[in-house]
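I hope you will forgive my troubling you with a question about protein structure. I set the record out below, with my sincere thanks for your time.
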Amino acid sequence: MFLNNSKFMLFHIGLVVLNVLLFHLIGGKATLVSPIFDLYILLIFILVSMSYGIFFSRKTMLILILTLFYFSIYVVRYYFFNDFGYKNNYELVRSSRFIYYLIMFIFISEVSINRTGTKVILQLTDFLNFSKLFFYTFLFSYIFQVVFLGVERPKLYSENNYEIPSLLILYSIYLSIATKSKIDLPRRSFVSLFVYAASLVSLSKSGVLEAMFVFVKSRMKTISVVNISTFVMTSIISILTVYIIFNLRSSGNDFSEIDRMLFLNVFISVVSEFEFVEYLFGKGLAREMPLYSCIELKYWATAISEDFSYCNATVFHSFLLKSLYEFGVIGTLLFLSTWFYFLSRFYGLSLGISIFTIIFICSLSVTGFSNSIVIWVVFLGTIIDFNYRDYKDEY
């Protein structure tokens, strides 16, 4: 086992290198490395279980059971009570990935909180060193691709809409630990520069919004004239930056013609046909969408079925739109509130808010909560030799 030494840091470096090689040598599909991060989360699950012992509070056990029960209702509904006649087990599994990540985080974070003994999986200094190397690699790689290769949207091992959120989550964890433990204080501004620069160079609209949120959050510890002014100015800069990025990437097209607006318009059209109970609980897992919507989104629908006669809410790209379609308002709120509760329970309220908001912003545009490329660093934070709750929230 990789316990009490720097081998686990080397493992994480190897993980990144492997993903980079696979992504650039095999074909560059956006989610190509997702199965590797799925296995990484499973590895964390095994290590935590073997190292810390298993113990749950009654409240956590109750939430876990209720979550599984609520989700199982949708699985039963998919197999026995649907009326669309198209059962695709692959699409069912793909639509269920988000619950796998949530259950795994509940288990891993709860075991880590209640751990006994002195075993350590990842030393604090190893985590800090890996984080800085991760930040530097992203910026240098992005700049090299833009300047020397003429790449408009640089990427390291996936689409940068997935990479930037994971980068900012890791930075938020790094910043929180460095602040609370008084480690690397002189270097924090230097590290911050690399992270924010990489977010800007990515030309990811959601990535820029996430970075601006992290910047404001890290400076607004109290309500004051200076902090409010900082928030207002940063908001204005964020809007202008996103507008500039849109103009750079739109090739002169109108705002309404971008793909995310098309997804939103089709979503609004589809849900306008919902019955009241469907607004509350959704259509169900991997539920077939109306044929006209599949035709309108046929460029993306053909990835689900070749003749786009069947498509599901995956074509919306946005996890939030997909969740609202499949689980309705109540299901989506239950899922989001459960994530928020356990993130805040493990990481503390302040850092929990930061991590949750970054993933939430990402989920407005892409898969967010249901993508291991985005959230793998949330699991990395659970094996560090650091108790976030022992410190007053300073970040």
Residues 7-257+314-390 form one domain.
